[in-house]
Amino acid sequence: MAIRDVLRAVEDRRDDLAALTADLVRIPTVNPPGENYRDCAEFLGNRLRRRGFDVVYVRAEGSPGDSDRYPRWNVVARKEGSRPGPCVHFNSHIDVVEPGAGWTRNPFGGEMEDGRVYGRGACDMKGGLAASVVAVEAFIDLMPDFPGAIEISGTADEESGGYGGVAYLAGKGFFSKPRVDHVIIPEPLNKDCICLGHRGVWWAKIETKGRIAHGSMPFLGDCAVRHMGALLHAFECELIPVLAARRTEMPVIPPGARSSTLNINSIHGGQREDYEGLPSPCVPDSARLVIDRRFLMEERIEDVKAEVIGILDRLAEERTDFSYAIEDLFEVLPTMTDRDAPVVRAVATGIREVMGREPNYVVSPGTYDQKHVDRIGRLKDCIAYGPGILDLAHQPDEYVGVDDMVDSAKVMARALHELLTGGSRA
């Protein structure tokens, strides 16, 4: 049986692919808080078990957000081939962000119209999950004597860092040799793009401190918000222009993300915000902000932090009574798979054959679960490749095109064939 027959079988399953995507969208796995994970995991697991996969459900007990009310469930399905060989793993996150406002249709309706499946998570990334399932099913139906093994997983919490999903599983050995050799994550980065990795990220919470006093006599207190204003001014005038001038050799998309960036994620000072009455007249003694710093492979995390701390220390010398506290919230180093890696070459071959053009090699501006496969699983042969337009992720009226899913599924099937029949465990 030739690989072209497998690709034809994928095309023949177009309606099933669209229906599977719609069914997945109709399970509202909103994170936070982490709803309906078990339902979605079992829906996927039941389908794959019927196709001969061994299925396990893993709860990430003790991970951030895990509770009896919102347990962090993951599903991993594995099908062994007829003889030894490498293992190819398709990993998709099952969680989605909240719908938000501005929808013109039911965000969890899974509506199909004009060759598109609409709904929260259709693009990011239940369409990619469905494409990987259909690609694998077509492959094993037409090539049942394949060597090695194939795995498909649906994992929790990617939208909040992946610690209840891929990070937990990687810590248990699910993303390491000798169990797994190649990983494809069907994130929506356009069907002709191979995503090699992502920039780094450092989140931190900074508090400036003051002294409370009556608001009619602010000279008797010390306003923490004014201190925070000085910090924001320094960021705006000093740090942000320096970061914008830095450029990376990483092929990050969009081009604006090829520089380092600093985002002010949130800010609060003074009295609590959940009170609807008039505020009391006080000088605020605390102000807090959260920064989201994205950095490049050319930068060291130690230097990234030192730039911010250096500004804070200088302000402490320049401003009377300026004091601060800083807390690390989250950090991930940049990662980028080599363009000559087996999984990259296999997917590139699929793009050339299915779409008749050369692939684009890109790097994501934000992180995704490749970070855990790389840093915890110590598995380098990992990329993101899947259907969907990244700009539609997290937007109202999110959708994924059926044609794009079919094409991506064909590429995945072609890559699977290449990795299993031409790969090795070396």
Attribute tags:
alpha/beta, Alpha-Beta Plaits, elongated, four-stranded antiparallel sheet, Aminopeptidase, 426 residues
Characterise this structure.
With 426 residues, this protein is of the alpha/beta class. The chain folds into 2 domains: 285 residues, Aminopeptidase, CATH 3.40.630.10; 131 residues, Alpha-Beta Plaits (2-Layer Sandwich). Helix content is 34%, strand content 24%. It has 10 helices and 16 strands. The strands form 4 sheets. It has a 6-stranded mixed beta sheet. A 4-stranded antiparallel beta sheet has the order 10-11-9-12, with helices on one face. A 3-stranded antiparallel beta sheet has the order 4-5-16. Strand 4 and strand 5 form a beta hairpin. Helix 2 packs across helix 4, helix 4 crosses helix 10 and helix 8 packs across helix 10. The longest helix has 22 residues. The model has no long low-confidence stretch (mean pLDDT 96).
Nutshell version of this structure?
Its cofactor is Co(2+); Zn(2+). With 426 residues, the chain is an alpha/beta fold. Helix content is 34%, strand content 24%.
Could you give the topology of this structure?
Layout: H1 3-12, H2 14-25, H3 37-50, E1 54-59, E2 73-80, E3 83-93, E4 112-113, E5 116-118, H4 122-142, E6 147-155, H5 166-171, E7 182-185, E8 193-198, E9 200-209, H6 224-245, E10 261-269, E11 286-295, H7 301-318, E12 323-332, E13 335-336, H8 342-355, E14 360-364, H9 370-375, E15 382-384, E16 399-401, H10 402-422
Parallel strand pairs: 3-6, 3-7, 7-15, 8-14
Antiparallel strand pairs: 1-2, 2-6, 4-5, 5-16, 8-13, 9-11, 9-12, 10-11
